[in-house]
Design brief:
With 360 residues, this protein is of the alpha+beta class. It has four helices and 20 strands. The chain folds into four domains: 1-28; 62-69 and 197-280, Beta Barrel (Elongation Factor Tu (Ef-tu), domain 3), CATH 2.40.30; 76-194, Helix Hairpins, CATH 1.10.287.470; 286-355, conserved putative lor/sdh protein from methanococcus maripaludis s2 fold.
């Protein structure tokens, strides 16, 4: 009896506990659901810059160049003879037509005199034969022979006269007499090198242009040559006068020559200078600080401010010039670009703006 009573008592207590838990669950479920308190994102301090366009932007680049003489002429003797006098001095300036060297003309003068005498005799003979031919007393063949002899004698005189004139070697171009390779008393043959003249005004700046840039250049285009002369930087304008049709098979670069006036001979051959060349001139270009661009997984982006909130814009980049980059698409003039603090903002986040004047 006692065991049965105990069992009934425990069952009663269990049922009461279950009923209490049910009431508690009903009370909890019947309570109104409490909404989570929204977390406000704090605003971020940023610096902004007004996007503007550049009306005309020059896409230029700089390459090293080497100065070469515009022309180097090796002067040779045209007739044989002994050098009588050297009228020039190495390192001195000369003008086209100046006398450089005189050869002995004794033999050449005798050759000329002999040819002139034969020509004179041929002229007298032809005149006599011409008169007789008019009278009909000489055959046509003899008259033709006299005329041919006169023409031959005149040609011999002209040749002797030219050889006599070439005994005086003259400068074919203006420039600097770089070298005299003979001495007085030396005997020279035709074709022997006697002097070298270097033309240094103007000079050529030789540039080897990479294959991806040469397509933008043409002869007649302007260039700027920069050099350090006696501790001072000088800029000299030049003109592209030659572009090779053949590129170097190993470097893929093309030889190009820029002609530069050099009246004071400040640019010496062999000097390394810098050539500024222009690929193209772009219109209405947008340039922004390169640091304002954020690399994304697929592309590039920037942030702009609209109504106090940050908006992300995907952009297309163009030229890079120093700390600036061209925006080819994605931004418009008048946009307020975030240039500092943009890496701490998210799309649609409230920002506090400080206007930047656009300086680096």
């Amino acid at each position: 009896m006692t065991d049965r009573s105990t069992t009934l008592t425990l069952a009663t207590i269990g049922m009461a506990a279950l009923a209490g838990l049910g009431l508690l669950a009903y009370y909890v479920l019947s309570l109104p659901e409490k909404q989570p308190t929204p977390i406000e994102t704090p605003s971020v301090n940023v610096e902004t810059e007004l996007v503007t366009t550049i009306a005309e932007f020059t896409d230029d680049f700089v390459l090293p160049a080497t100065i070469e003489a515009n022309r180097v002429v090796n002067v040779a003797a045209e007739v044989d003879g002994r050098i009588e006098r050297i009228l020039c001095k190495e390192g001195s300036a000369c003008q086209a037509g100046d006398k450089l060297i005189e050869l002995n003309t004794d033999l050449l003068q005798a050759e000329y005199d002999s040819a002139a005498a034969r020509a004179k005799h041929a002229a007298v003979t032809f005149k006599r034969m011409s008169n007789l031919h008019k009278e009909g007393t000489v055959p046509e063949r003899d008259f033709d022979q006299a005329r041919a002899d006169l023409a031959t004698a005149d040609a011999a005189v002209a040749a002797a006269q030219a050889r006599l004139a070439r005994a005086c070697i003259i400068a074919p171009i203006s420039g600097i007499l770089n070298r005299v390779s003979v001495e007085e008393g030396e005997y020279v043959q035709p074709g022997a090198l006697v002097a070298q003249i270097v033309e240094l005004d103007p000079v050529k700046a030789v540039v080897h242009v990479p294959e991806h840039d040469i397509q933008h250049l043409r002869t007649g285009a302007k260039a700027l040559i920069s050099a350090n002369v006696k501790g001072s930087k000088i800029d000299l304008p030049g003109t592209i006068t030659y572009i090779s049709e053949l590129a170097d098979v190993q470097t893929r670069c093309t030889r190009m020559e820029i002609t530069v006036d050099n009246p004071e001979r400040m640019l010496h051959t062999g000097r390394i200078v810098r050539a500024r060349l222009t690929r193209r001139v772009l219109k209405d270009v947008i340039m922004i600080p390169l640091a304002a661009v954020i690399p994304m997984e697929y592309g590039k982006a920037v942030y702009v401010v609209n109504d106090g909130k940050a908006l992300r814009r995907e952009v297309t980049l163009g030229l890079i010039r120093g700390w600036k980059v061209q925006i080819a698409g994605g931004l418009d003039a008048g946009d307020r670009l975030i240039v500092a603090g943009h890496r701490f903002v998210a799309p649609d986040q409230t920002v506090q703006c400080k206007i930047n004047n656009g300086s680096p």
